[in-house]
Amino acid sequence: MAEGSSGSEFTLDSIRKSLIRQEDTIVFCLMERARFPMNSALYNQSLDLVPGFSGPLVDFIVQETEAVQAKAGRYVNPEENPFFPDNLPPSLVPNSNYSQVLHPGGASININKAIWDMYLNQLLPLFVVAGDDGNYASTAASDLSCLQALSRRIHYGKFVAEIKFRDAPHDYEPPIRAKDADELMKLLTDERVEKMVKKRVEKKAIVFGQDVSGSNNTDSKHYKVDPSVVARLYDEWVIPLTKRVEVEYLIRRLN
Ligand SMILES: C=C(O[C@@H]1C=C(C(=O)O)C=C[C@H]1O)C(=O)O
């Protein structure tokens, strides 16, 4: 089930290892998107660039890509959640045997609208330069990689919540029955781990984002994505949204 895991191990430790691995993917995706300027025409609601499609070009590219990926079975995987879930075609390929560790109620949790809004309206302007180079299709492909990586990480909260519940059902059952979201939030929060995550992603942006040359000199002042933006991304959005998924999952856990 988890990225890079055999599927047989389901522990908080193995889930956290997967979240750490996903940080690399997220940092590299952001660095790829930073190769292009803002290209705001891509996101413009009123520029109908595709004949017969009404809406921003980025919507067209994401919807069409998700449709192909759905046919190839992407959304059968409980780790994946589409940005445009309405009218997706069914999978045409034989089902892979994903281990069904989640409670069935988890399948209805999809907070991609909030992730889309955060990414386009708040995050992008923090790490891409202004301008338009006309590379809309490549820019949108890069946006989709970032969005999918962020969505996977944030919805991984379902697996985190499941294992936390299994490890301490007696602690979680009373607030679940009382539908006490605040108490659940307190129970699942681990501030020590959050602090480590924020420090580590900032460091990854420093290490991965340097220009590497053949000599011993690296340019340590210029990073492909500002490391403080990556730390802020996790602090303000990734961690809080992951915890929102965890709470939403737990609230449904005993249904
Ligand atoms: C994901 C977890 O749950 C919470 C969310 C965290 C995160 O999004 O990085 C970190 C610690 C917890 O507060 C976890 O415990 O690992």
Tally of individual domains: 1
Secondary structural class: mainly alpha
Write down how many β-strands occur, each being a DSSP E stretch of 2 or more residues.
Answer: 2
| Uncertain spans | 2-7
Instruction: Round the mean pLDDT to the nearest integer and report it.
Output: 94
Portion in helices: 55-70%
What share of residues are in beta strands?
A: under 5%
> What is the string of SSEs from the N terminus onward?
HHHHHHHHEEH
Give me the CATH superfamily. Chorismate mutase, AroQ class superfamily, eukaryotic
> What CATH first level would be assigned?
Mainly Alpha
Q: What is the correct CATH architecture? A: Orthogonal Bundle
Helical run tally: 9
CATH-derived topology? Chorismate Mutase, subunit A
What Rg, in angstroms, do the CA atoms define?
19 Å
C-alpha geometry: globular
Biggest sheet statistics: 2 strands, antiparallel
GO biological process, one term: aromatic amino acid family biosynthetic process
EC number: 5.4.99.5
Catalytic activity: chorismate = prephenate
Pfam family, one: CM_2
